[in-house]
Structure formats: C-alpha cells, structure tokens
Write a structure and sequence with these properties.
Layout: H1 11-14, E1 27-28, E2 35-38, H2 51-55, H3 67-73, H4 86-91, H5 112-123, E3 132-137, H6 138-147, H7 169-179, H8 181-187, H9 201-204, E4 221-222, E5 245-249, H10 250-260, E6 262-263, E7 267-272, E8 277-280, E9 285-291, E10 300-304, H11 310-321, E11 328-332, E12 340-341, E13 360-365, E14 407-410, E15 420-421, H12 428-438, H13 441-448, H14 466-478, E16 483-487, H15 489-498, H16 510-524, H17 545-557, H18 563-568, E17 570-577, E18 588-595, E19 598-600, H19 605-608, E20 610-618, E21 629-637, H20 642-650, E22 661-667, E23 670-674, E24 689-694, H21 705-709, E25 713-715, E26 721-723, E27 729-738, E28 747-748, E29 753-758, H22 763-778, E30 789-793, E31 804-806, E32 820-827, H23 835-845, E33 850-852, E34 859-860, H24 861-868, E35 872-873, E36 880-882, E37 887-889, E38 892-899, E39 903-908, E40 911-913, E41 918-920, E42 925-926, E43 932-933, H25 940-944, E44 954-964, E45 971-977, E46 984-988, E47 991-995, H26 997-1002, E48 1007-1014
Parallel strand pairs: 4-6, 9-13, 15-16, 19-39, 20-24, 27-32, 34-42
Antiparallel strand pairs: 1-2, 2-8, 3-5, 3-7, 7-8, 9-10, 11-12, 11-13, 14-16, 17-18, 17-38, 20-21, 20-33, 22-23, 22-24, 25-26, 27-28, 27-29, 30-31, 30-32, 35-38, 36-37, 39-48, 40-41, 43-44, 44-45, 44-48, 45-46, 46-47
Helix pairs in contact: 5-10, 7-8, 12-16, 14-15
Length: 1029
C-alpha cells in the first residue's frame, strides 16, 4: 500500500496539493486533472479506432457520433432506464444515478480486507500509454478507503494507547476466522492488524484508531457531480484531480463497479506526450467544422484527441460529411477566418498545428473546375465561397499565415502595450501572468530588443531556447504600435510542450505559471552552458554575513547567470537552530539562499496550524426556551481527529456530553456519511455541511463487528467461538419530504431527525417516537402538530422513492436488520409544512463547514512581511536533521532579506493545500502602490552596507495578478501600470480599460501576486514618487 507523500512546503501557494490516493508512482498534473508520469515503460501504439469511441467523450446533439454509439462505447445503455443495474435498484441507488459498465453489480467479497487485496495491485501499477483509465468521485473513493481501513484516512496524531480501548481481541479473532491469519498479515491495510513486530494483532487491541465502527459499506458510485450535464460524460472544466476525483485503472474500476454499481462511467485513455511523459487525456478538443460551400450553416461538432494526426482527422471528417479527401483541403479557421492551411502537414498532430479547444475548422472544397478559392501564397483571401462558378481566386480579408504563430488583431490600442490577450480556453491565469511580466520594463526590453539572443542557450534542459523565443515573439507582437489584441497560440503551445500541467484547458494557478516561465527563461538565457559544476553549500561557521553572502551568490552564478537572475533573484539569510538546550547542543545553521519570490503567509505560523469549523448542532431533546438547532463554531488543530473536534464543540454547548454525539455530513439534504472518531479532520472539505447530533444512544448507530467484517461468529481470547448476539438497537434516520402531486415532485425538506430505536420496534411504537420527536424538535412554541403526515420506510440511498408505509396501528415488529435504517415523514399536500424545516434549510445553505483561521480581519502587507521574517518553530513534517544530535528536530527557523532584487515578486498565500483539501483565504490585504520599505525585514549587516541606500530597499508596485471568486471556478485578471504614460490599466483577457489608482488599492481580497520595482529602477513615466515634495 502506497503511503502519502509529505506536504511540499512552498509548492503552489506555499502549501501541498492534495496527494493521490492509492496511486504509487503517479505524479499529478494539477488543475487540468491529467495524471502524468515520466515514461520509460511499455507504451502501446495508437491504433486506428476513433478517439471519441475510445475515450468515451460525449456524443451530444450535433456531434458526429450517435448517442447510442457513444453510450455503447463507454459501456452505457442508450436507454434512460435500462442502464440502472439491478444491484443499484436493490440497494437503492442515489437519485438519478444510473448503472453503467456492467449490467449487474456482482456480490462483493465477504469483508473489506478481501476488497482491498483484490484492488490494490491494479491501483499501484504505473500509467501506461494506450491503456484506459476511469475517473471516480473522490468523495466516494475516500469513503471506500475508510471502509477498507486505509490508515492514511486517520488522524496522524493517533498512537498506541496503554489500555486496550480500541479493537478487541474478539474482532482480531473474527478477522482471522474470516480471512485466515496469514491473509490478515499479508493484506491488511493497517499495519496494526498485521502479524509480527510491535504492530501485531495483540498490540492492535491498544490502538485508538479502531475505536468507532459507525462506518458502513459505501453505496453505489456517484460520478454525476463531475460531469457537465446529465447524460453526458464531458468532464466539468473546474474539477481537479485529488480534490474532486481520482484516476484508477480499468481493472480496478471493473472490480469496484462490479461490487458497488452506480456510475456513470467516465472512461479516458492514456497518451504519450512529446516530452515522453504519459498522461490521461481528460478533455478532448471540441472542434467546429465548416464546409466552404456553406459557411453560414451550423457547423459539425466533433471531439478529437489532441494527438490525432491531420490525416486521420481529415479522413474521418470527410467520411462523416460525405466529402472526397482528394477534393478538399483542411484549414485552421481561427476566429472564423482561414488562418492557416494545415492540409500540408498530414503527419502532424492537431496540437502541433496549434489547434485549440473550440477551434473552428474549415474544409475547403474544390470548384467543379478543380481549382481552389483560397490562395496560400497571397497576403489575403477575400471573396465568397458560395459562387461555385467563380474561378478567379477571390480573397478572404485575412492573411494566410503559419499556424505556429501568435495571432494579432490590428488597430489602434489605448496605449502602446495596452493590449488584450484572447482566452484560448481557461487560459485567464496565463493571460494575467503574461500581462504582469510584459509590464516589467527591463524584462520586456531585454526580449523585445532581441538582446536575449546574445545569450540564447540551445542546450537548455527541455526548452532548448524555444521558450525564450516564444516569449520574445509574443512581447514584440504585444508592443507593436498597431496591435490591440493577441491570441497567444504559439506561446500556449510551447509552454504545454515543456510542462504538461499547462498543456490542457483546466484552470491553473498564475503564480505557478509565473515561476515556471521565469525559471525557463533563466535557463534559456543562461550564460552558463554545458555541464554545471557541483557546489556544496557551505554554512557560515562564524564567518561574516558579507563573506558568506558573496560566496553564496558567486556559487549561484556559476550555475545560473542570466539577465533574469539579475532582475529577479535575491538572497535570504536562513538561520536554523536546534531546540536542544545550548549546554546539550547549541547547533545553529546559517546559510544564504537565492530566491525568485517571497511567499507571504496571511496568518501567523501558529494560526496556520489551526482551522475553524462551523457545525450545525441538533439537540436530542430541547430544554424550555432553547433552540433545537444552533450553530457552533470551534477552532482546532489541523492534525486533530474527529473525536477532538466533537469534544471541542461539546465544550461550546452547556451540558453537552461528547459521548452522546455523532458527526455527520449532509449533502443534498441527505446523510452522506457518518464520521468515525479516529478520522483526520483534514478529510473534511470546506464545502462539506457538518451536523453534530446529540443522540440518546450513539451505539445504536454503530455497525456490529460481525456485520462489518462479514463474520457470523466471534470468539473469545481462548479461541472458543460462540454465536454472536445481534445488537438490539439501531439508528433511525428520519427525513422530511413533501407529498408528490401532478404539479410537484417528492422533495426533501429541512434536516433529518435521528432516533435510537429497537430492531424489534412495532409500527405503532415507531410512529409514536417520531411524533414525540416532531413535537420536541420540529414544531416550535405556539405551533400545533398537524395530522397531515405519514411515515414510510425507504431504501438507504433513495429517500425520495415511495417506500413502504408504516401503519401507526400495527403491533407487528418491523424486524429491522441494519445498523442504520432510513425512514421519511411525508407531509401531505394539505398539511402546513413546519416553519422549522425552512429555517433549517436556510441555515444549511449559509454555512461553510470550515476554513483556515484568517486572523483578525484586514492585514497590512507590512504585517505579512513581519510574520514572514519572524522566527518560527518547524512542525514534525518539516523536521530538520541536527548533525550534532544525530536526529531530526523540530527546530527554530528565521528568514531575513539580505540581497534585494530589482524586481521583487510577492505572493500572498491565499490558497492552502493539504493532501485532502484546498482552501482559499479571503483575508483583505492592504498594500502600498508606492514606497514599500522592506529595510525592517533585512539583515542588520545588509542595512549597514549593501542596503544602506534607501533606494535599494524601497519599492513601487508595477503589476498585480488578481484572483476572483472561488478556488475551483475562479477567474484571473491583471492590473498593470504602463511604463509609457504611468497610468493604471485593467487587463481582463481580451478586454482592457484604464482605471484609477484608487481602484487598484481597493482590491484587497483579490490581490494575489504583486510585482514591485525597486526605486532605483523606477520607470521615468511613473513620474516622481508620491512621497517626494
């Protein structure tokens, strides 16, 4: 079983991205959701089958494959009803989730160990080009991991306890009885249950991580929320791998789906990228194909792989449109104009021809006389395609060009360089980044003047100088006198060739692209060519700061020496101290480290380790004058368990005992899951709706050991097996819904109620208990309980199905068997719906389960710099190895600026990532447009020497990358100050407008990446500094 990687500090906004689950050796390509791996394995050759059939991309109206063919291609029935599996019907599949891939879910293994043992080999295998993979809802997948006992879903702070308060010896014997002791030792996901060593079954009885058994076997797979529309397999562009979904092999999917059913199947194929990496292609190119004989007709919409060759594409499209390949030519019809002929590149891929998502394509048809109307050698092609008798060779008003270039729009810009960048499909992050870099005058001038060619490094790793050439060509086009907008097609292509994470069309992070581009430009323009010398980092060892800093900078330039380094690279002084008392150790490591940007925290180090939760607390019984449902807000450490979260919440409610509480997640007004006490709280996503329940008997909601492990007998420690005694209680989940009518569907309302009931309860007894709960919790003072309701028993995952009516007069036991049973109170059409239900809905709609602590409201940029340069205590994940103590220590670390670069890039760490979740911090940050003084955050030695001149530590803002909206579906724009007239402009993809300085300052929540220019490099057009007389 693969373990999770340690969080990568500083990566992607300073935090770690969510790590893959059970995918050994698979490195994520983030944002686009593609999964990539440097490939040297067995890559299957692409066959001639249509990519759409293979990948299961959608066959919606207007797309060249029929819906029935498409559904069959991905294992779906074309019938809207026949696809539901019988197993899904039996179990009660989630509303609207139809079965797919297999006709019927097979009987699952007897216990979670068997499931894990069968699936694990298929999940841990590396990616293989040509093989098929499936996407699976991460929310469901984590449920399955918890069901099979995956240890990394549990709190990292759980350790063996001295008393056997957890897994009993009886359960261990039961598992041995079910699987065989050798199988437990070989395959148990938790080492605590394996034989041998300190984590043997004997010591397993002392582990708290198996204390609670509320976990039930997951229901049918539900992938609907990953898709754009019902009935389509087109993946939503804003979903992300390891946050919204995981990618598993076809064999793993077939096993899991055969046991659980559900769906729909989201099937994709792995491809080999030009760089040699293997990637699962999640989004095909959606193309619109026009015929030259009728360009006004609706286009044929197709979906193709980006690696489909022009020849394959042309043959297929001509076949679909009934055209002769010998009498047609294929054009890149970008912006609805014949931009470039690609017919002469039959073996090039569509991606190599710079064909992007939603790119128009033109099929030019020969005239009856055998002539072509478009002339590839003319500067422009103007005229009409529709006159078949015209053989004079008319022209379109667009120049035939090379498909490898960026595309400008000609006109008069607001100001030179104030041009828009066309969005090529979720490329706002790239446009925002490029606008910022374009408005750094010394960087721009270095490339537009072609000075960079004097240092162009053709031996640069991967990029070989091509990134610098593409960047220079784009900037030159943007800064022409007659350019108003540019489509950065070639730059987008080149970046995608060198970094697969930017090759698709998913939303990415602007800072990640900025750092990649600057790193790539540094290497492409590096004056150091050939093999780079190995340089060992030397510590200060009592030497002066000046000596050690000069040595560090000299060593750095022996490996990286470019104009980009001159402009952007500074030096930090880093001091790491061993926490052991000086008399025992006293070790301190002092180094000087180059940096390209500074990533500033929005909260203190201590607050970064805390997170705040908002829970909806539902009482079991309501005291007079108290509200039955209240909001509780608590703050806990990020590495705490659910048990500690419940205990913290219980302290906020007078008289509440945590032993009487359960924590559940509500999704779409239904119970999504019961949290187990040992679970890590970073399993909880920010959009999860949490409900803390007070129940009379929490054990009623627990899953008996024999039910969980599929064993009919359990034994005592002496090995004497005896029949189990079935638990006498079960948990009842009672939903509310409105009665169906010709004008109204059954709809769940409010919050469900939770009762502890006997498994032998009669219908009469249960109805009385529900009525009592309605009086206590649902109906407030002054409200009268109406009689217009009825109680139904419903399937576990489908509370809106009709169900079985429970008679209030029945004295027959209901004979309930599961640990949790589902019921619904149906309010008749004539009944008045209790107002409490509407209030509960409003409360749930307005609550966010948790967020990282944001500090005390608005912050000054100077405060963030202060936090950044304060001494901090490293956590266990970042422990430092002390070579004097000979062990890893949670040391003290302090950073200070020593050498300040001409261009200072500051990233506000608005995004926090863990292996399970992502958060966006909306902390307002006030930042100066002019006169940022960083001297208080510099080393004392530099303030005396190198930075003694205030011009060396005073900065003025030149550009700002802004993020708007939520983490998954946000948008990027840029504010930049022109070096031509000193005015501020807003760049929103292709739209540009002049703005006031006040508007830039007011955007305190969106500010993400700040570009400051040192005062001694201040552009003349900025005028005198505001602080000057």
């Amino acid at each position: 079983l693969s373990q999770f990687s340690d969080p990568r500090a500083g990566h992607m906004c300073g935090g770690a991205r969510p790590e893959p689950l059970l995918q050994a050796g698979m490195a994520s390509v983030h944002g686009e959701g593609a999964l990539a791996r440097d490939g040297d394995g067995d890559y299957a050759h692409r066959d001639a089958e249509r990519i759409q059939t293979e990948n299961g991309w959608p066959a919606e109206e207007g797309i060249h494959r029929s819906s029935a063919d498409h559904l069959a291609g991905v294992g779906l029935s074309s019938s809207s009803t026949a696809g539901r599996t019988s197993a899904s019907r039996d179990r009660g599949a989630p509303d609207g989730v139809e079965g797919c891939a297999s006709a019927q879910a097979n009987e699952a293994p007897r216990n979670p160990f068997d499931e894990y043992r069968q699936v694990e080999p298929h999940i841990s295998a590396p990616l293989r080009a040509g093989a098929y993979y499936y996407l699976i809802n991460r929310r469901w997948y984590v449920e399955w991991l918890q069901w099979v006992g995956h240890p990394d879903t549990q709190s990292p702070k759980l350790h063996p306890m001295p008393d056997p308060v957890g897994l009993s010896g009886e359960v261990v014997l039961m598992m041995e009885h079910a699987c065989g002791k050798d199988k437990i030792d070989e395959s148990c996901p938790d080492k605590a249950l394996r034989g041998g060593g300190t984590d043997s079954p004997t010591s397993a009885a002392k582990r708290t991580r198996t204390h609670s058994w509320t976990k039930e076997r997951p229901g049918p797979i539900n992938n609907r929320e990953l898709l754009e529309t019902e009935g389509s397999t087109a993946l939503r562009k804003e979903v992300n791998e390891h946050q919204d979904y995981e990618i598993i092999s076809e064999d793993a999917w077939n096993l899991i789906h055969s046991w659980y059913g559900g769906g729909p199947a989201i099937k994709r194929r792995a491809i080999q990228c030009p760089s040699g990496a293997t990637q699962v292609e999640l989004h095909g190119l959606r193309l619109k194909v026009y015929k030259s004989s009728d360009t006004e007709a609706p286009p044929l919409e197709v979906i193709e792989s980006k690696l489909t060759t022009v020849k394959e594409f042309k043959e297929h499209i001509c076949r679909e449109m009934g055209l002769d390949t010998e009498k047609t030519r294929i054009w890149d019809y970008f912006n609805q104009k014949p931009y470039a002929l690609i017919d002469d590149k039959p073996n090039d891929s569509l991606e190599a021809c710079r064909i992007f998502d939603e790119n128009p394509i033109l099929l030019e048809e020969q005239t009856p006389q055998g002539a072509w109307k478009l002339d590839t050698k003319k500067e422009s092609n103007v005229g009409s395609f529709n006159d078949d008798n015209d053989t004079s060779g008319g022209h379109f008003s667009y120049g035939a060009s090379s498909s490898s270039a960026d595309v400008p729009s000609i006109g008069t810009p607001i100001q030179r360089g104030v041009v828009g960048l066309q969005n090529l499909g979720n490329t706002c992050f790239m446009n925002s980044s490029l606008q910022c870099l374009s408005n750094i005058p010394p960087l721009r001038e270095y490339f537009t003047s072609m000075e960079y060619k004097n240092s162009l490094n053709r031996n640069a790793y991967k990029t070989q100088g091509k990134l610098a050439e593409a960047f220079a060509a784009l900037l030159s086009m943007m800064w022409r006198q007659d350019t108003t907008r540019v489509a950065p097609r070639n730059f987008k292509y080149q970046v995608g060739q060198f970094a697969e994470q930017f090759s698709g069309y998913g939303q990415q992070d602007s800072m990640e692209l900025i750092e990649y581009v600057l790193d790539g430009l540094k290497e492409d323009c590096n004056r150091v060519t050939g093999a780079k010398p190995y340089i060992e980092v030397k510590e200060a060892d009592g030497r002066s700061d000046e000596e050690v800093a000069a040595e560090a900078m000299d060593n750095y330039r022996r490996r990286s020496n470019s104009r980009i380094d001159d402009l952007f690279v500074g030096l930090f002084k880093s001091v790491v101290k061993c926490p052991a008392p000086p008399e025992l150790c006293g070790r301190a490591s002092v180094t000087f480290d180059p940096f390209l940007s500074a990533k500033l925290p929005l909260v203190t180090t201590a607050e970064q380790r805390m997170t705040q939760f908002s829970l909806t607390f539902v009482r079991d019984t309501c005291p007079p004058g108290a509200s039955p449902v209240i909001q509780v807000t608590v703050k806990v450490s990020k590495d705490h368990s659910v048990k500690e979260l419940i205990e913290a919440a219980a302290r906020e409610v007078e008289g509440l005992r945590p032993q009487q509480c359960l924590l559940v997640e509500i999704w779409s007004k239904k119970v999504q899951k019961f949290f187990e006490e040992h679970e890590a709280i970073d399993n909880i996503r920010s959009d999860d709706v949490l409900v803390l329940l007070e129940v009379a008997e929490p054990k009623a909601f627990s899953v008996p050991s024999e039910q969980r492990w599929g064993v009919a007998h359990m034994g005592s420690e002496n090995g004497d097996h005896s029949p189990t005694v079935a638990a006498s209680l079960c948990g009842a989940i009672v939903y509310h819904r409105e009665e169906a009518s010709p004008d109204r569907i059954r709809e769940l309302r409010g919050l469900p109620m939770f009762l502890s009931i006997s498994k032998q309860v009669t219908g009469q007894e249960l109805c009385k208990q529900v009525e009592r709960k309605l009086r206590e919790i649902v109906f407030g003072p002054g409200e009268t309980l109406t009689q217009g309701w009825a109680l139904y028993k419903v399937p576990k995952y489908s509370p809106t199905t009709e169900g079985t009516l429970i008679s209030p007069d029945s004295t027959e036991p209901l004979d309930l068997r599961d640990s949790k049973e589902n019921f619904v109170v149906e309010w008749t059409e004539d009944a008045t719906l209790p107002s409490r239900l509407k209030k509960d809905e409003d409360m749930m709609n307005n609550v966010q389960s948790h967020r990282p602590d944001r500090g005390d409201g608005e912050q000054e940029l100077s405060q963030l710099l202060k936090w950044f340069t304060e001494e901090e205590r490293l956590g266990a994940d970042d422990a430092w190895y002390c070579n004097k103590c000979k062990e890893h220590k949670e040391a003290f670390k302090k950073l200070e600026f020593h050498r300040t670069p001409p261009v200072l890039v500051l990233q506000l760490k608005r995004f926090q990532f863990t292996r399970w979740s992502r958060e966006r911090l909306n902390t307002p940050v006030r930042f100066p447009l002019e006169g940022l003084d960083i001297s208080p955050y510099c080393t004392e030695s530099s303030r005396r020497n190198e930075n003694s001149d205030p011009a060396k530590t005073t900065y003025d803002l030149a550009a700002l990358s802004k993020h708007i909206g939520s983490l998954g579906g946000g948008h990027y724009v840029a504010y930049c100050r022109s070096s031509q007239d000193g005015e501020w402009y807003n760049f929103d993809d292709g739209m540009v407008r002049q703005v006031s300085a006040a508007e830039v300052e007011e955007d305190k929540v969106g500010a993400y990446v700040l570009f400051y220019i040192r005062r001694d490099h201040r552009p003349q057009a900025f005028g005198p500094p505001a602080s000057s007389p």
